[in-house]
Amino acid sequence: MFYRVLFLFLLMVQIVSISPNALGDEGMYPMSELEKLDLQKAGLEMDSALIYNPDGLSLVDGICKIGGCTGSFVSDQGLMLTNHHCAFRAIRDASTPTHDFLSEGFTAGTREQEAPAVGYTVRITDSYRDVSADVLSVVNDDMDPDKRTKAIEKKMKQLSLAEEEAHPGKRAEVSEMFLGKTYVLFLYTYLKDVRLVYSPPLAIGNFGGEEDNWMWPRHSGDFSFMRAYVGPDGQPADYSQDNIPYQPKVVLEVGSEGVSEGDFVFIFGYPGTTYRHRSAAFLGFLSELYMPTVVDWYGWQIQNLESSAQGDRQRQLALAARVKGLQNTYKNYRGKLQGIDRLDLLSNRRQEEKELQIFIDADPARKKNYGQVLTRLDEYYQARAETAAYDLWLRYMLRSSETMSAALTVWENAIEKDKSEADREWAYMERNLDQTINSLVIKSDTYDPVADTLIMGELMRRAGNISQAKELNALKDMTGADGAEKAQKYLEKSFRKSSLMDSETLLEAMSKSTEELEQMRDPFLRLVSELYPPYLEMREENKRRKGELDQLQAALQEIKREFQGTDFVPDANGTLRYTHGRVEGYSPKDAVQLMPLTTLEGILEKDTGHKPFNVPPRFRELVNSKDFGTFLSPELGGVPVNMLYSTDTTGGNSGSPVLNARGQIVGLNFDRAWEATINDFAWNHSYSRSIGVDIRYVLWVTWKFGGAQWLLEEMKVDFE
Questions:
Q1: Could you report the per-residue pLDDT of 485-494, keeping only the tens digit for each?
Q2: Cβ(194)–Cβ(117) under 8 Å?
């Protein structure tokens, strides 16, 4: 099982060195930088080569990506630990009104009872190499921005396809590290048979619901167990009853003794996207226009979708994953907006750029090369702001409704499939088509015409306030308050007539040409065909903008590096990163000090018997019985539930294992504190705190409440 593997990470020409003396808790470090950090001085109690070794096996080989989250292998039989909210859709998909696993929890007593997690994939990194020179060989400084973007995209696809041809059965992707400057090709193993093993009920897995989301103190059991399978030959394979559990190269040890305040901890994970090196103009665009628009639209959807499904559990289950995703972004953006205002972040960044401009202007060579960078970035985002309302509206019109989203996928596939593989949009490349089709099937399984009617009707109403949207022929006389009655009649008739969201119809439609799709006379395909030209125009303009922005952002990073006299960690981009910190509380406001560990007693204190603070009666009985096994913390007098620590995390770190100084799993990252929602733009030790579920709570719930002691035995954990 244990064999030599070429591992990760980043040969980045832009990062020369990071001084160990400058090492703090901030930083989502690429793996290639770890050897330059004094991790023992920071608190690590093991050889750093054991956590990352590019020439052999190490802890990082036990880390994987599950969908948009992180996971870790905790047994040699492919058992993975990740968040409840990461497994949420799989739990929802397995549920029915009769067997409501979201409400009841899910326990697979045998391997045969494990539920297929359709559409989930597990990504394991095999190797990497820098391909910046190859990618940038197809562009030059005189190239038009749109041609530049397309040339880079095509080259990235060609490199990926060539790598996959050289390594049959593997997946390859080129990731852009520094915008317009650095590109790394990753080779991955993709496992396609993923199954749900154990999840606690929502009353435990999401205790506190949206009221507690992004808040501290927290008492959420946000964890689930899943398992990865492969074919009988050990190779990745689609779901089959004949498949066998995947045997990972490295299994992470569970540290059932947990942590105490002040302990050193570190995290490996796949953080999404951060924007710490972007301009003040970008931050202004985001905070003054983009995020407020998203908050408003998502808030409307949450309120109206929940209201429309009230009292109908079947519809609630169908909408559960959609609403949960909306809620998470909605509250996250509200936190970011408050954080930008609280920290006066925009004004501070503008002041930094004034000082940077003075530095640029002080030297003729710098002024020649960089003198207009900040001005051009301002102009770029001013142009974005002028079309933002329409751009967002059109995107939502084609994406917020699952019917329209499916129609767009079908229509675009008919156009893209006639192109060469490297010229297609990413979702329609042959290598990605299975995932695209799986996404359609999942949409059809939870199709809710009432929800889509509400969403499309509201978007048509909002179009009346956007001149470009109001002028679209496809929506003639159906926008704004004046067109509401006509819009409602159109939608009612269209949803009666359409059969597009039938899974068999969708699959058949994916094989058709645009001419054949027109012959289906489906009203939503017809609407998409009419909206596609303006959508395509917007997409092409966005590619032109990206080509322009990449060059400006690359120049900004170059001159900032010179101005600061130091290198800096690149923004997160979904690739594997390392961060460390301490288990510690913080003070969010005057005279308030928050402690870093919560306990079972806190759950009982919060329990009202009503959602979202309603633990199952049997859970309360178990707590009161005080049968805690080896998971009792003598210093706390109970079982720890959640933990707070000063690592640098963001979205995508959900499910990341929190590891102690000896490399054992002591927790599972799932959130940040409210003040730390601003982490995407700025990090500060005084307020940046991550939140995880303590491993002792994971194990106690699995054992005592879930009755799944065999999982503890599989992980080789003592519990009595």
A1: 999 999 999 9
A2: yes
